[in-house]
Specification:
Helix content: 40-55%
Mean pLDDT: 85
Order of helices and strands: HEHEHEHEEHEHEHEHEEEEHHHHHH
Distance between the termini: 73 Å
Number of helices: 14
Number of strands: 12
Shape: rod-shaped
Radius of gyration: 40 Å
Structural class: alpha/beta
Oligomer: single chain
Strand content: 5-15%
């Protein structure tokens, strides 16, 4: 293992031990590194979801996509207990259509009860409200559709609820029992309008979808122009804004549209559960910010109404925005703990819960450590002295042995010279075997120098062995 990896491993191991200690003390732990994201069967949603999945993988987060649901069923899946999803793409205006005097009592009750469970991580791109009518339609507003058949989209679609709100605002009765409110989508060739089955058709989709592009080129149908009342719609319904399809924006030859057409538009939001772990909210917000939708379609042509830098943004009129998301959008960066630790945690083989714990409980961990540091700091100050004493203690042992030998040499009654020589060699051999830190080298060499001085003195004594006085 090379040095950088070793340092990373030690650091992550220390973090893991710290997390384990805090978990033992508090019972808290980090979140599981998984996000279930509902995309519906919408190509634009799936493309962004795939980009988020790739962006979050280096941080140890597994994004699981769910394409099987759409519209209001997606909202129900987010707020259900247990939840079916952690996050989902939701059409702008869907939640807004369930409040105010135009909404049914059941919808208002749902909105008041469940909206607090949801948060927005940003608005992602425009989804205009396309109202197609036959070219010979003489009306200039939705009010002129009274008593006429209207295609409002399938019952599961979010677009149908938005259409219901706009029609009710214009005095048109909208209910599932009204045979004039046809719960189906318009065909790519506009057949239902051209055949007279319906007088108008609502769609809420991005401008570059195949269905919209096909309908914009069908002869005999056109878009309803909201120019006279677009500002009023935007004032009354905050989730709506006005956009302009300029003359010739679809084709110059034949000219389409032949004049400017003002449309209403919503904007798609990435919505998450309010109880989603803050670390996952930060990471997913960062993925949204770093992966804006492309301004070009698959053919390389600019997407209608796209303006660089407009999306994503967090000016959301329908949902609250988490503080973690605001911080990511403001700084353009992840929090330091996630940015620096999460990739290392994954590389070291630890679960994402370690990263989540450090990100979410770093402050609490520090507060927990402060009392411990009050005790540990004095101990840490004493440790160097204790260590120095331990090393010097080994030196002093051999100094005592050497002093005892030297005292014997000072005795006027000489002992056995061979025994003295054996003792000096024993002391020298013992000192040589001692392992000591580099900082203590001078003291060990001084001891060996003193051993040599005693050895020289020993060799200078006469080789006579006197017997003790009788």
């Amino acid at each position: 293992m090379n040095l950088p990896k070793a340092i990373t491993f030690i650091a992550v191991a220390a973090i893991a031990l710290l997390s384990a200690g805090y978990y033992w003390a508090t019972g808290q732990r980090g979140a599981e590194g998984k996000i279930v994201l509902a995309t519906g069967d919408v190509a634009n949603y799936r493309e962004l979801a795939a980009a988020y999945e790739k962006a979050l993988d280096p941080y140890g987060v597994d994004v699981q996509l769910r394409p099987a649901v759409e519209g209001f069923q997606t909202l129900k899946g987010l707020v259900s207990d247990p939840p079916q999803f952690d996050a989902a793409f939701i059409k702008g205006g869907l939640v807004g259509s369930m409040q105010g005097r135009l909404a049914r009592a059941k919808a208002q009750e749902w909105q008041q009860k469940e909206l607090g469970k949801l948060r927005s991580l940003g608005r992602l791109f425009y989804e205009p409200i396309w109202v197609f009518v036959r070219s010979d339609f003489a009306g200039q507003s939705l009010r002129d559709l009274k008593g006429k058949a209207v295609l409002t989209g399938t019952r599961e679609s979010g677009g149908r609820r938005i259409a219901a709100q706009l029609l009710r605002a214009n005095g048109i009765e909208f209910s599932k029992d009204n045979p004039l409110m046809i719960a189906e989508d318009i065909a790519p060739d506009g057949n239902q309008l051209l055949s007279g089955k319906a007088e108008a058709a609502f769609l809420v989709q991005p401008a570059d979808t195949p269905l919209i592009q096909s309908l914009l080129h069908v002869e005999g149908i056109r878009l309803l122009n909201f120019a006279l009342e677009a500002d009023a719609y935007a004032n009354r319904f905050p989730a709506l804004t006005k956009v302009t399809l300029n003359r010739g924006a679809v084709e110059f030859e034949p000219l389409s549209p032949p004049e400017d057409v003002t449309l209403l538009a919503t904007s798609t939001a990435l919505v998450v559960r309010a109880d989603l772990d803050p670390s996952l909210i930060s990471l997913l917000s960062f993925a949204v910010l770093q992966n804006p939708r492309s301004g070009f379609d698959k053919a390389g042509d600019p997407v209608l109404f796209h303006r660089p830098g407009t999306f994503p943004h967090i000016s959301d009129p329908e949902y609250r925005v988490p503080e973690e998301t605001r911080q990511v959008y403001k700084s353009g960066e992840l929090p330091v703990a996630l940015r620096s630790i999460a990739p290392a945690v994954k590389e070291a083989g630890f679960p994402f819960s370690v990263s989540a714990f450090i990100s979410n409980h770093g402050a609490q961990t520090v507060l927990l450590l402060i009392p411990s540091l009050v005790i540990l700091l004095p101990i840490l100050r004493v440790l160097p002295s204790v260590y120095n004493w331990t090393v010097r203690r080994r030196l002093l042992y051999w100094y005592r042995q050497l002093k005892a030998l030297e005292k014997q040499l000072d005795d006027p009654v000489e002992g056995d010279l061979a025994a003295h020589q054996a003792e000096i060699e024993r002391i020298d051999s013992g000192v040589r075997k001692i392992r000591y830190p580099l900082a203590f080298s001078d003291q060990f060499y001084h001891l060996r120098l003193h051993i040599n001085l005693v050895r020289q003195r020993l060799f200078q004594k006469p080789h006579v062995v006197r017997m003790a006085a009788e």
